[in-house]
Amino acid sequence: MKADVEGFLYPVVDKTTCIDCGLCEIVCPITNLAESSKPLQVLATINTDNSIRKESSSGGVFTPLAEKIINEKGVVFGVRFDENWQVVFDYTETLEGLTAYRGSKYVQATINNAYQKCEQFLKEGRWVLFTGTPCQVSALKLYLKKEYSNLITADFACHGAPSREVWSRYLEEEIENHKTAQRVVVGKSTVSSSLNLMSLIEDIKFREKSDGWKKFRFVLKFDEPSGDVEKSSVLSSIHYLNPYFQAFNTGVLLRPSCYVCKIKNACRSHADITMADFWGISEVDSTFDDDKGTSLILLNTEKGVSFFNNITLRQRSFSYDIALKYNEGLREGSYYHPRRDFFFSNFPNTKSVIALLKESQIPTLSMQISRYKNAIVRRIKKLL
Where, if anywhere, are coiled coils annotated (predicted)? Predict the structure, then answer.
């Protein structure tokens, strides 16, 4: 895999070793779409353990799914942050290890050898839970070339994959800004210039819910050595005011293929289970909305139904039409932002990624007109 000028990873064929077997095309999820079919069950779900739900992006469903697999001596695959706060695929075999895999991470992940390791565990007869984007789950199924009764797959309503390079440069700039602010307060730098900038970050949460599920915050927690005393400080902003999150959410930062993705449509999911936020739950059942997070679960296969029915969660069934009505991520591709080209044409040479992210959100006149039209259409659809 090699990054392009925008910072997205793409496969590169080594023509000196390629034997033209066509396997890469055979397992490509883009050219092997699943048959269209509706999910067997649609559920609103809540984890009754509020401590887990607090640390989760939505209703806290991933954790009990993963715990069941691990309690069966199985393996859970998902994404975690590496030492440089990039997102990588990995696996855990312990309950303690699940912490790193909990919570959304809005960055393109590197697969590494996850598919090969997954196949190895499956052939050993161990239970495996594989969680990923719809295209990653689809690619796994195609890579395996056969069904495994000991494999459970779960995808989610995907908005798209942002650039790893944008993410990295954004973090570096936030750290530098924080160091500058600290120098103003302390009067001198308390951080060695030779120290890896990313090592100053103690934790990152894309969806911290201290202000509620709907007003989640983007949080960077810094670990700052100061003499013999370590003190932490936090950069926290509500999601729609954070420049990185805002640019991601509006579609500026996504990989080009995400705008025309046909795999993310819930009816074409290769996964046994699809997870999402149940936006709109307050409109259909306010008893399921305490603003701590409610998950929408689509059970797409008999295996998914059987597995999920053995999980203890608060839940209620809904029609698929209700799920689609309030969750456009299940039915529509990501919006190609008119300022995307502006952003990425200036990105390589910009001195401030944060300033460029903010500038990308300044709407043109045509964007403002389109926004008003779309708002009217959405309101009409909700009334139908």
Answer: none
Cα–Cα distance, 102 to 81 (Å, whole number) = 11
Tell me phi and psi for residue 280, to 5 degrees. Answer: 95, 0
Q: Which of 78, 60, 94, 74 is nearest to 130 (CA)?
A: 78
Helices (H), 95-242: 114-123, 134-144, 164-186
**Is-above-0.70 flag for pTM?**
yes
Return d(Cα 68, Cα 72) in angstroms, integer: 6
- Residue 33 DSSP one-character state: P
Give the chain's length.
384
Beta-bridged to residue 317, according to DSSP, are 43
Low-confidence stretches of the chain (pLDDT < 70) are 183-196, 224-232, 266, 367, 384
Residue with tokens 């936090």: 234
Under 8 Å between Cβ of 142 and 29: yes
Over residues 123-136, the pLDDT tens digits come to 999 999 999 999 99
Residues 6+ apart with CB under 8 A from 120: none
* Measured CA distances, 28 to 21, 37, 86, 271, 360 (Å): 13, 20, 24, 16, 32
Nearest 5°: CA angle at 14, between 10 and 16?
170
CATH 3.40.50 fits 32-49+58-161+269-330, yes or no: no
Residue position matching structure tokens 């293929």: 257
The two structure tokens encoding residue 149: 């009764």
Tally: H helices and E strands in the chain: 13, 13
Q: Angle CA(143)–CA(148)–CA(149) in degrees, nearest 5?
A: 160
The neighbour count for residue 359, using CB atoms within 10 Å, is: 16
Cβ count near 221 (within 10 Å): 16
Compute the distance between CA of residue 171 and CA of residue 93 in angstroms, rounded to an integer: 30
The dihedrals phi and psi of 256, each to the nearest 5 degrees, come to -50, -40
What gap in Å lies between CA 192 and CA 176, rounded to an integer? 12
**Residue 280, pLDDT score:** 93
Structure tokens at 381: 């659809």
Residue among 279, 9, 29, 223 nearest 137 (CA): 29
- Residues 245 and 253: their CA atoms lie apart, in Å, by 9
Return the structure tokens found at 274: 């699809």
